[in-house]
Amino acid sequence: MEFEGVRTDRLGLLLEQFDQAREMAQVRLTGLDDEEFLWEPAPGCWSVRRRGEATTPRAFGPGEWVLDLGAPDIPASEYAEVARQAADGMSVAKIAEDWSVSVERVEEVLAHTGEPEPDDTPVTTIAWRLAHLHLQFAGAWEWTFGERRQDPKQMVDLTPSAALALERFWPTVDRWRESVGTVTEEQLDTVGFSRYPYSNDAEYPYVNVLAAANLEFIHHMAEIALLRDLWRVRAGTSGREQVS
Hints:
Blueprint: E1 2-3, E2 6-7, H1 10-28, H2 34-37, E3 48-50, E4 65-67, H3 79-87, H4 92-99, H5 103-111, H6 126-142, H7 162-180, H8 185-188, H9 206-234
Antiparallel strand pairs: 1-2, 3-4
Helix pairs in contact: 1-9, 4-5, 6-7, 6-9
């Protein structure tokens, strides 16, 4: 359906939202250099590192450069999801397998009462956030429109070069966007149309998966934009007092 040239159908609304976010993000990333790309604004940051210099236990990537990843756990923001899985009949052992944690950890989460403490998550660099998005969009295309066989963690050749990372990133995003534009109403309602691993995409209609993809893109790009603002002020390029 269109109203004065604007689509009002479900897919149209999601595509318009994504297109606007993509346009804003590309403008916001103009001028990104390698120093800013890899800037670590706090101790213990996760970033893109040489394989031999990675400090996190599960850093991964197919080449010389890898993406930091810590030990598996269930974040506090997912406690409700774990409770839902258990309520739907999933065994504790299967939940533990899905989250790559011990049975004891799942039992601890299920026994938790009251509001969970905020997650103690690391700050991540612009390089990490962009690589994270790149991996997700590459994997989302492969496991929805592709052959559904490649491991998303091995699909992107990571790099410390901001220019090269962006040169590789945008075509991956645009391929996904082009394929999404062909999705039918029936496919939007199909549970399991996306089989992306390391997620619960297969449990939801594809329209929900698309909405989540938009949210992922928007919130990570907003984080990147904020890091760029902090870098600019820190570097004293905004005319304001430099932050030490």
